[in-house]
Amino acid sequence: METLKKIVKNQYFPAAAVLAAVLLFWAAGLLGGLSMLNDNNPPIATLTWMLFVYAAAVLTPLAGLMATVDLVRRWHRNRHAVEIEWAQEAAQDTPVPETAQEKPTQNHPAQTKARKEAA
Fold it and tell me: CA quadruple 72, 61, 26, 41: dihedral positive or negative?
């Protein structure tokens, strides 16, 4: 049960579910999804079925494309976040040479005089 909760709460689940539904729809279509046309049905039932199939045929590639783009975008974002985390850890592990450490800046005499006059 915990595994199922983990899967459903995963950020990839919605897009993966849509992509799976699209692939299932097209697999069913390839394996004889138009069998309703062979049966002796009333014309309105056949017309309704044909409109449903037409709408699904138009919308499912769009839904599949959007789901694929979302999955790839999330994967790239997560991979980029891990790379940044690794880079930050590597930067923290490397010692900073003394010459690269920040030194206090000395004010130029003209700047000091201008600050005193402004105050």
Answer: positive
